[in-house]
Amino acid sequence: MRQARLPTPRTGGWAGLCRAGTLALAGVMILAAPGARAQTALLNVSYDPTRELYKDINEVFARTYKAKTGEEVTVRASHGGSGAQARTVIDGVDADVVTLGIPSDIDAIARLTKKIPADWRGKLPNESLPYTSTVVFLVRKGNPKGVKDWADLTKDDVKVITPNPKTSAGGRWNFLAAWGYAYGQDKDAAKADAFVGKIYKNVPVLDTGARGSTVTFAQRKLGDVLPTWENEAYLVLQEFGADKFDIVVPATSIYAEPPVALVPGNTDRKGTTKVAQAYLDFLYTDEAQAIFAKHHYRPFKAEAAKGAGLPEVKLFKIEDYQGSWDDIQAKNFDSGGLFDRLNQAGR
Q1: From CA 345, how far away is CA 332, in angstroms rounded?
Q2: Would you call 142 exposed, middle or buried from its count of C-beta atoms within 10 A (0-12, 13-18, 19+)?
Q3: What does the alpha-carbon distance between residue 106 and residue 152 come to, in Å, rounded to a whole number?
Q4: Which residue has the higher pLDDT, 8 or 80?
Q5: Residue 150: Cβ within 10 Å count
Q6: Looking at the predicted structure, is the pLDDT value of residue 10 above 90?
Q7: Of 138, 166, 260, 333, which is most buried with the most CB atoms under 10 A?
Q8: Residue 206 phi/psi, 5° resolution?
Q9: Does domain 135-255+317-344 match CATH 3.40.190.10?
Q10: Which pLDDT score is estimated for 37?
């Protein structure tokens, strides 16, 4: 039986599990030596579970871009809870691109800084979604609590590990997935609100990011079920062993939208717009789409997902139930929203 352990920083994998992503001061022109060609450095501010994904993406993009242009580029990545990452950009971190976990986080940057245009979703294909994802359940081996669907998360003896939706996109997708499941039963919003409240009464701890919740569940061994990004569930099996955990795919789950955007308010000033745009365009190439599938994300190009072993799930879009992302954010996660009301009521 394979021992569950975390790789060292030299091995990649979960090297970033127990440390915050480094906020690199990037997007500047660096001269390696007298007479050397200038090297462009980009900063991608991303969300928690994409550490392994963008390690591969960034290496391949740099190699591809140099082969096409002769120019060297380094892409550094910062990772953390998506909401917290958006706040760092709002507060002045010099991101060239943002690849966050939920549309409302990029909307917030656009609204509060004007460094991203309000119509950013129309700047790239598929509403700026080079890939999508969904929420599945990670359970202990053998599924001792018999978790099969969202309703099982309300049982009194089931402890649910999920991140704080105030700081984590994964936490918000879990929250919205549970609400959408309940609302889809009979279109009763009050019942859906109450259903989510029952689940959150079973949540013993709220980590700030999705990766933190993964550590709590897989390494600290707290809880019975971890609703999580699909890729994160498969990563746990890979790193800790399929003999310790099972993945349960609910019959219905949410169409999770982790979007990407250029930050022209930064790149125009730094002179990195051309390279940063090329980086985002690269995410839609066949090569990058295959990398998304390899890491168990759902690529924009369906043909790239063939052979990736992603299960078929009936997906719903939360916009169909709650309207625009401004409405979704205000109803659920702004001050005085549903999550706050549940907290005040003791969840």
Answers
A1: 15
A2: exposed
A3: 33
A4: 80
A5: 25
A6: no
A7: 138
A8: -115, 105
A9: yes
A10: 52
Amino acid at site 60? V
Q: Where in the chain is the domain with CATH 3.40.190.10?
A: 9-132+258-305, 135-255+317-344
Q: How confident is the model at residue 175 (pLDDT cuts 50, 70, 90)?
A: very high
Does the domain at 9-132+258-305 match CATH 3.30.870.10? Answer given as no
State the pLDDT confidence band at 55, using cuts at 50, 70 and 90.
very high
Mean pLDDT of 310-337: 96
Q: What is the three-state SS of the chain? A: CCCCCCCCHHHCCCCCCCCCCCCCCCCCEECCCCCCCCEEEEEEEECHHHHHHHHHHHHHHHHHHHHHHCCEEEEEEECCCHHHHHHHHHCCCCCCEEECCCHHHHHHHHHHHCCCCCCHHHCCHHHHCCEEECEEEEEECCCCCCCCCHHHHHCCCCCECCCCCCCCHHHHHHHHHHHHHHHHHHCCHHHHHHHHHHHHCCCCCCCCCHHHHHHHHHHCCCCCEEEEEHHHHHHHHHHHCCCCEEEECCCEEECECCCEEECHHHHHHHCCHHHHHHHHHHCCCHHHHHHHHHCCCEECCHHHHCCCCCCCCEEECCHHHHCCHHHHHHHHCCCCCHHHHHHHCCC
What's the confidence (pLDDT) of residue 306?
Answer: 85
Instruction: Spell out the residues 6+ positions from residue 180 whose beta carbon is closer than 8 angstroms to its own.
Output: 192, 254, 316, 318, 321
Q: List, for residues 255-300, the tens digit of each pLDDT value.
A: 999 999 999 999 999 999 999 999 999 999 999 999 999 999 999 9
Q: Which residues contact 10 (CB under 8 A, 6 or more apart)?
A: none
Tens digit of each residue's pLDDT (9 = 90 or more) over 219-257: 999 999 999 999 999 999 999 999 999 999 999 999 999
